[in-house]
From TrEMBL:
GO terms for molecular function: alpha-amylase activity; calcium ion binding; starch binding. The lineage of its organism: Eukaryota, Fungi, Dikarya, Ascomycota, Pezizomycotina. Its cofactor is Ca(2+). The keyword Cytoplasm does not apply. Keywords: Calcium, Carbohydrate metabolism, Disulfide bond, Glycoprotein, Glycosidase, Hydrolase, Metal-binding, Polysaccharide degradation, Signal. Belongs to the glycosyl hydrolase 13 family. Its EC number is 3.2.1.1. It is an enzyme of class 3 (hydrolase). One of its GO terms (biological process) is polysaccharide catabolic process. This is alpha-amylase. It catalyses: Endohydrolysis of (1->4)-alpha-D-glucosidic linkages in polysaccharides containing three or more (1->4)-alpha-linked D-glucose units.
Length: 473
């Protein structure tokens, strides 16, 4: 699937080990440091749960074989500690099960994104005692950079030194060498074909020489790839769009989290941050938009306020880029630092009536309708403005969303100006989260009131007919 085709998807992020077991258990114990039993077959059995929330694609954790030893850093359940890139991780099933997952998704008109990590392998022992012969195919020390620890201020060190710890070092591959590149290029070409993969999530993209990516992604068949460049600065992150079509929107992750995590968060920093992304990135509509992932404390670990969380989730789904919701957000999971943020989803019983399952479904539903109604919606670059210090208004095509950080007890009356919304004189609009009808005044301005600190999403009433949203208005 091409970058342009991915623009219209909505992604659900799965940690395979923690999403669903083959036996469908909702009570199996999960020690968050160990393998907990999730499988590709378990995931296949629960695709309705994902699709009914409005998602069209699933990002799964890395699929290749990892070492089996338990370590003081835990087990390799997340999949980032590769030992053999030609075999699958049998904890998740056989290669045939992965093929079956891909087919099951495609049969529903959904897509598969696979996480890959060509930067390193993983070793269960000290950094200077690595036995390279355990790696396939990188079975010699000459495929790797010598051991050193990363100094963020030095780009050569970021690219060539080793991630990981003294318990589990991540031997860093010489991705600038033709020998390593050739192996990875044929590997990715085969991987994408063997499992009919539609998109890639590129782990540790900032730790690989930038010249590696163009031939690699070409070998992958030109499918969409979104890179992980873990940095909060747009000037650092955006240039990666020169090497891969998408990048995870970490800069806005930081400003958004800060803005909505408390009633004292800075909305003006969020406005500035969004504007800076738009002017710095080649194409914000191809970024991966997220509020949570498996590396960061969950948003509700900062606040238990449902309204603040709804504001942040709505912002994630409606801002520029491809929304990515991490498993457990729909069940209001509250885990903090790794590994607490990697709870087994099955303990939720896969409720489809929970507050956030239904909320995400509503917002995804509006985005899915808007993109179908207006072909320019997804490539429209959102414009943000701030009518007061607690509120951000985001206009993307004909979707106008209003997000605030007043919290569950917050109330306010304010006027959205026609210049911020694009509403015309007397225009009828629907607030689709409450199905309340509004009309702009003769100047196109709209008077609204915020209650319980909730976000609001306005959409032209005339464009709702046939949608089923708010009974098709
Ligand atoms: C984790 C912990 C370890 C712990 C271990 C048990 O569990 O990090 O401390 O000892 C996998 C596992 C992890 C495991 C690691 C290492 O392997 O999932 O549980 O460690 O064994 C990706 C994946 C991630 C994966 C890997 C490795 C990479 O998403 O799940 O981890 O394949 C760096 C990398 C980034 C990586 C991340 C975990 O580490 O760049 O690719 N994620 C600074 C640095 C970043 C650094 C970040 C976190 O700290 O610049 O490079 O990320 O350590 C902003 C700044 C940023 C700054 C942040 C904190 O603040 O702009 O520069 O980031 O404002
Ligand atoms: Ca590297």
């Amino acid at each position: 699937l091409s970058p342009a085709q991915w623009r219209s998807q909505s992604i659900y992020q799965v940690i395979t080990d923690r999403f669903a077991r083959t036996d469908g258990s909702t009570s199996a114990f999960c020690d968050v440091n160990r393998y907990c039993g999730g499988t590709w077959q378990g995931l296949i059995n629960k695709l309705d749960y994902i699709q009914n929330m409005g998602f069209s694609a699933v990002w799964i954790s890395p699929v290749v074989q990892n070492f089996a030893q338990s370590t003081d850093d835990g087990d390799s359940y997340h999949g980032y500690w590769a030992t053999n890139i030609y075999e699958v991780n049998t904890n998740f099933g056989a290669a045939a099960d992965l093929i079956k997952l891909s087919s099951a998704l495609h049969a529903r008109g959904m897509y598969l994104m696979v996480d890959i990590a060509p930067n390193h392998m993983g070793y269960p022992g000290c950094p200077t005692c690595v036995d390279y012969s355990i790696f396939t195919p990188f079975n010699k020390q000459s495929y790797f950079h010598p051991y050193c620890t990363i100094n963020d201020a030095d780009d050569t060190s970021v690219k060539q030194c080793w991630l990981g710890s003294n318990n589990v070092p991540l031997p860093d591959l010489r991705t600038e060498d033709t020998a390593v590149q050739d192996i990875f290029n044929s590997w990715v070409s085969q991987l994408v074909k063997n499992y009919t993969i539609d998109g890639l999530r590129i782990d540790t993209a900032k730790h690989v020489n930038t010249g590696f990516w163009e031939p690699f992604l070409q070998a992958a068949g030109g499918i969409y790839a979104v890179g992980e460049v873990l940095n909060g600065d747009p000037k650092y992150v955006c240039p990666y769009q020169n090497y891969m079509p998408g990048v995870l929107n970490y800069p806005t992750y930081y400003t958004m989290t800060q803005a909505f995590q408390s009633t004292g968060g800075s909305i003006s920093n969020l406005v500035n941050g969004v504007n800076q992304m738009r002017t710095t990135c080649a194409d914000t509509t191809l970024l991966g938009s997220f509020l949570e992932n498996h590396d960061q404390p969950r948003f509700p670990s900062y606040t238990s306020d449902v309204s603040l969380t709804k504001n942040a989730i709505a912002f994630t789904i409606l801002q520029d880029g491809i929304p990515i919701i991490y498993q457990g957000q729909e069940q209001f999971f509250r885990g903090g630092e790794v590994p607490a943020d990697r709870e087994a989803l099955w303990t939720s019983g896969y409720s489809t009536t929970s507050t956030f399952y239904t909320f995400i479904k509503q917002v995804n539903g509006l985005r899915n309708w808007a993109k179908q109604k207006d072909t320019s919606y997804l490539s429209y670059k959102a414009q943000v403005s701030s009518p007061d210090s607690r509120t951000i208004v985001m206009r993307k095509g004909s979707v106008v969303s209003v997000h605030n950080n007043r919290g569950a007890n917050g109330a306010a009356s304010l006027t959205l100006s026609s210049s911020a919304t694009g509403f015309t004189s007397g225009q009828s609009v629907m607030e689709i989260l409450t199905c309340k009808a509004y009309a702009a005044d003769s100047n196109g301005n709209l008077a609204i009131s915020i209650t319980d600190g909730l976000p609001q999403v306005f959409y032209p009433t005339s464009a709702l007919s046939g949608s089923g949203i708010c009974a098709g208005a």
